[in-house]
Design brief:
Strand content: 35-45%
Shape: elongated
Radius of gyration: 16 Å
Helix content: 25-40%
Largest sheet: 3 strands, antiparallel
Low-confidence stretches: 88-92
Order of helices and strands: HEEHEEE
Structural class: alpha+beta
Oligomer: single chain
Length: 103
């Protein structure tokens, strides 16, 4: 239950980013890092683009339980979305990467 609550919050955050970017995603990835730093990831690609928590969180929940991850102490949980749709009016848009300069 604790993990689901955390994953729901993470899904809310990534969906908020989608809304700010005015885009949607087709692939959902769940990442779990255990206390011993062993990492496991699972992904699912959907049939269409989604951007709402109500459509994406059930996928995160599915990835957590099918098949169920072994019950071990967890140090990190992550939710990411990929295969994004950046087309506005049918025209692909070039994304701007943040530029960081170090002196």
């Amino acid at each position: 239950d604790d993990m689901l609550a955390i994953l729901r919050g993470l899904t809310d955050k990534v969906c908020e980013r989608l809304r700010r970017l005015a885009t949607a995603a087709m692939t959902v990835t769940l990442k779990i890092k255990y206390l011993d730093f062993v990492q496991a990831t699972r992904s699912k690609t959907l049939d269409g683009y989604q951007h709402e928590v109500e459509q994406l969180f059930p996928v995160v929940e599915y990835l957590l339980y099918h098949p169920e991850f072994p019950p071990r102490p967890v140090r990190l949980l992550g939710v990411s979305l990929s295969h994004l749709d950046y087309e506005a009016d049918g025209v692909p848009q070039q994304l701007q990467l943040p530029l960081q300069m170090r002196v």
